[in-house]
Amino acid sequence: MKRHLGFVILIAILAIAVGGCAPRHAATPVPAPPMAPLLAATPVPTPPRGLLPAEEKAAYVGVDAAAVAHIASTERMVVRTASLDLVVPDTEKALADIQAMAHELGGYVVSVEAYQYQEGWRATLTFRVPSDALDTALERLRAMATTVRWESVSGQDVTDQYVDLESRLRHLQAKEKQLLEFLDRAEDTEAVLAVYEHLSQTQAEIEQVKGRMQYLQNQVALATVTVILTPDVMAQPLEMGGWNLPGTVRSAVEALLDVLEFFVKALIYIIIVVLPTLILLALPVVAIFLLVRWLVRRRRRQ
Questions:
Q1: C-beta neighbour count of 242 within 10 angstroms
Q2: pTM over 0.70, yes/no
Q3: Farthest CA pair distance, the chain
Q4: Do 255 and 201 share a structural domain?
Q5: Do 231 and 93 meet the contact criterion of CB atoms below 8 Å apart?
Q6: Of 199, 210, 203, 217, which is closest to residue 165 (Cα–Cα)?
Q7: Does 50 fall in a domain?
Q8: CA nearest 179: which of 168, 163, 194, 169?
Q9: Same domain, residue pair 203 and 67
Q10: pLDDT, tens digit, for every residue of 167-215?
Q11: pLDDT in tens, 265-280
Q12: CB 228 within 8 A of CB 85
């Protein structure tokens, strides 16, 4: 046992010495130490950079430079979104036309919300189309409208995020390759389990990075458009002498609903919170009162 321990310590000292000298003698390959003693002495399976093979060391060292060059040469990745508030002659027809347009341009409808009023339907629709078809979609939406009350088009550049993910993925894949080599050369069960644990964590991180990259690719490939549709009748309220009758009625109804909502919420809080709290606070007081009353009556009887 002592001889084995001394052998492990000697190998560790040699590994440290070789690792410290490796940057000055990069041309001289350094033989890897036996796997079983190294894994037994060092539980972390990632090797020092001085002990990496030449091609893997180059991959590690060149990652940052490759990332910078990739940012400069890669086409910018921009997530495009648009929002419009349109006045249309017929809300239901506009909804059908927009859904047909989204499918025609190679996209799909994400959500539709419609509200019925006495004057007609008011709707909000969200759909996605290929980014290169966004301008076409916006032109066709404007053509459907009687009035474009509001329009907003924005973009978020995610190129740096994507390049960072690519760089991280290369690091993780290089680490995974090294761990697989360690796993093939491991001789005892303890070393196999240690390497396998680190390998599982690394592979899970790789899957997370790939998932995030796929999400960004999807966001860049498809633009998101949100459209609010209001019928002409609701957009042009009746005005008499500067008095907006429908607007006044609508404001009064909204105020009434707010008051009713307040009273309902207050009643719920009183029933669920206030009454149980008062009961809990009153129980000790009532108990003390009854006890004092009983004691007083007992003394009087004596």
A1: 5
A2: no
A3: 109
A4: no
A5: no
A6: 210
A7: no
A8: 194
A9: yes
A10: 999 999 999 999 888 888 877 888 888 888 888 999 999 999 999 999 9
A11: 999 989 998 888 988 8
A12: yes
**CA-to-CA distance for 210 and 89, rounded, in angstroms?**
46
**What residues pair up with 151 in beta bridges, in sequence order?**
84
Domain that holds residue 17: 1-45
Contact 244, 237 (CB under 8 A): yes
Cβ contact 76:87 at 8 Å: no
Indicate the number of domains in the chain: 3
* Amino acid present at 1: M
Coil, strand or helix at 42: coil
Are 137 and 226 part of one and the same domain? yes
Listed in sequence order, the DSSP H helices in 126-244 are 134-144, 159-185, 189-221, 232-235
Q: Examine the domain organization and report whether 228 and 142 are in the same domain.
A: yes
Tokens of 130: 């290929």
131, 158 Cβ separation under 8 angstroms = no
Rounded to whole angstroms, the Cα distance separating 110 from 208 reads 25
Whether 205 and 294 share a structural domain: no
